[in-house]
């Protein structure tokens, strides 16, 4: 997979972990290994601008996803996944930091960014959380991916609870 992480935020983040968890999520979702993804880390002003421009909502948000080729995970085990451009995930570390601090199970900004990266990947793959059943499916899958990655990394404890709305 070709995954680019570009930190334009001015905040130091664990870019390697973002890259690794994105790769793990895409592999687990059986996305073609030649597919491409871009992750951009921005400050609150840039995120607010994107939020207004694309969602018509004021204020910054934690994560935004911009799909390109609308790739989806294969449905059947023997189905060959298509390759293409997944799109862009935009993360805001300042929002991630405050969400991690305010969460029921407090966690670091980097842990929140890892969770948000998986959340963004799932949005790129067509998952949503508008309806209760969609939310249950997406957040369950998100937790399973984060927990699997953390386990592979030798980290202990469950993943942070989802803080994205």
Q: How does the overall form come out from the CA principal axes?
A: globular
What is the total tally of β strands? 4
Describe the sheet with the most strands: 4 strands, mixed
Query: Looking across the biggest beta sheet, what order are the strands in?
Result: 1-2-4-3
Name the helicity range. 40-55%
Radius of gyration: 15 Å
Give the N-terminus to C-terminus distance in angstroms: 28 Å
N-to-C SSE string, H for helix and E for strand? EHEHEEHHH
Could you list the spans in which at least 5 consecutive residues all have pLDDT below 50?
Answer: none
Class by alpha and beta content: alpha/beta
Mean pLDDT: 89
Hey, roughly how much beta strand do the residues contain?
Answer: 5-15%
- Report the total helices: 5
Fill in the keyword field for this structure.
165 residues, alpha/beta, 4-stranded mixed sheet, 5 helices, 15% strand
Q: What can you tell me about this protein's structure?
A:
The protein is α/β, with parallel strands linked by helices and 165 residues long. The chain is 44% helix and 15% strand. The chain contains five helices and four strands, in the order E-H-E-H-E-E-H-H-H. It has helices at residues 15-28, 44-55, 93-102, 109-124, 132-152, and strands at residues 2-7, 36-41, 63-67, 85-91. A four-stranded mixed beta sheet has the order 1-2-4-3, sandwiched between helices. Strand 1 (2-7), helix 1 (15-28) and strand 2 form a beta-alpha-beta unit. The longest helix is centred in the last third of the chain and has 21 residues, at 132-152. It is globular and about 45 Å long.
């Amino acid at each position: 997979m070709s995954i680019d992480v570009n930190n334009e935020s001015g905040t130091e983040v664990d870019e390697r972990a973002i890259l690794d968890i994105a790769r793990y999520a895409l592999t687990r979702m059986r996305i073609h290994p030649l597919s491409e993804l871009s992750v951009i880390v921005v400050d609150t002003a840039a995120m607010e601008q994107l939020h207004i421009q694309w969602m018509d909502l004021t204020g910054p948000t934690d994560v935004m996803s911009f799909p390109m080729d609308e790739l989806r995970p294969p449905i059947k085990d023997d189905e060959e996944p298509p390759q293409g451009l997944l799109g862009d995930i935009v993360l805001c570390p300042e929002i991630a930091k405050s969400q991690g601090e305010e969460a029921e199970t407090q966690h670091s900004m980097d842990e929140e960014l890892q969770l948000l990266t998986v959340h963004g990947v799932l949005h790129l793959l067509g998952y949503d959380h508008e309806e209760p059943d969609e939310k249950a499916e997406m957040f369950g899958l998100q937790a399973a991916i984060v927990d699997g990655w953390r386990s592979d990394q030798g980290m202990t404890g469950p993943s942070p609870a989802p803080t994205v709305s």
